[in-house]
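To the structural biology subgroup,

Please find below the input and predicted structure for hydroxyacylglutathione hydrolase, which we are adding to the shared reference set this quarter. The sequence is reproduced verbatim from the submission form. If anyone notices a discrepancy with their own records, reply to this email rather than editing the shared folder directly, so we keep one authoritative version.
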Amino acid sequence: MGLAHQLMLISKISRSFHSSLSASKLAQFLTLTSCFRYRCSNITCFSFLYTCVFQFQDENCSSSSEGRQLNYSYLIIDEKTNLAAVVDPCEPKEIIKAAKTENVTLSGTILTTHHHEDHSGGNVELASFLRENVTSKDKVKVYGGSKKIPGLTTLVEHNTTFKLSLGEKKEGDDDVQSIEVTCLATPCHTGDSICYHLKDPRQGGPGCVFTGDTLFVAGCGRFFEGTAEEMDQALNQRLSSLPDETVTYVGHEYTKSNAAFAKSIEPKNEHLLSLIKVCDSSKEITTGKYTIGDEKKFNPFMRLEEPDVISATGLGSPSRVEVMTKLRELKNSFKA
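Predicted structure (tokenized):
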């Protein structure tokens, strides 16, 4: 299974407060190598992985409905052992089906970004399947930031670290794949929001981060359980502390509507205008194609001190928190 292996996107309904309509199936493929090199050719720290992305689409939503039709789950696959971990398995049957199709075995590890059902709703079903069919009961681990996470076995908090070992060391084998995972607590969208920063220690490099509904491309999640101050800390302290080259894997494909809103804030931002061209070009999938450094250039929620951003709020001499608060209010009422 080489680097040229393709990413398979399967459309299914997102079961959550977001939507309850019927689903349609997409047939679209991306190549992992392209996803990384499209942005930065030296991002090779996950060269032994590919990610199988599940794209959930509400077939009755228009493309301008803030992207709620697009919901991501991820498989993180070790090409040497053909074992895979899962991020946010909202539709376990589709994940199990894809694992069989791709000839990989689910390792028993589930990383959950937050408790909303469209991210954690499949945890219990998938964990039960894994215990019965794949691995021993004690090897099934469900990570998350609170006891609200269905099926939780391992509670994590800010700066919790662990090894994601996708395989067991055999005699004479010194090269077992083991990914370093650092948990970043980013409460606001939910109180238990966790971002997972993954790195391969043998190869170095910035790695990638799974951000759930905290960070989207050119946007951020709603403040359902937190404050503007918490989102400022989540985006502009904790996520911003990662290397600029860190690749972002987000929870939803909201990029087109996010970029339209961002343009209303900074209409002359060249980095943003380039992003909009990508969004307009086709059915472009943006997860895995942008970095933390990119977000600092075009995401208004990470540009709180930029003069044009401040001016767009209509406030006099606002604090960072006031700018964040106003941006969220404007985004909530924005019509593309």
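Summary notes: The longest helix spans residues 320-333. The chain has one domain: 6-333.

Regards,
Lab coordination
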